[in-house]
Amino acid sequence: MILDQAKTKTNYNQDSTSEKPLRSIAKTISWRIVGTLDTIGISWLLTGEVETALAIGSVELVTKMILYFGHERLWNKIKFGRK
């Protein structure tokens, strides 16, 4: 079943109808929340200070979104793996 899906080639129009942009946005936000909570938890364990952990998590929330956007834009310029 999974191998059959891997062999099936799709194009942008098919891909765009299989998952709506709003779903992708919701997944992005939920993943960022999970990642930030992870960072806050690790920071709290390492520092023992909730305030410091929340500060690190807050900064990380913003910087990771900016880095991800730049990463995506850069990958759009790379031809590797495209036809």
UniProtKB/TrEMBL annotation:
Residues 25-76 form the DUF2061 domain. InterPro entries: DUF2061_membrane. It comes from Salinimicrobium marinum. It comes from the Bacteria. Pfam families: DUF2061. This is DUF2061 domain-containing protein.
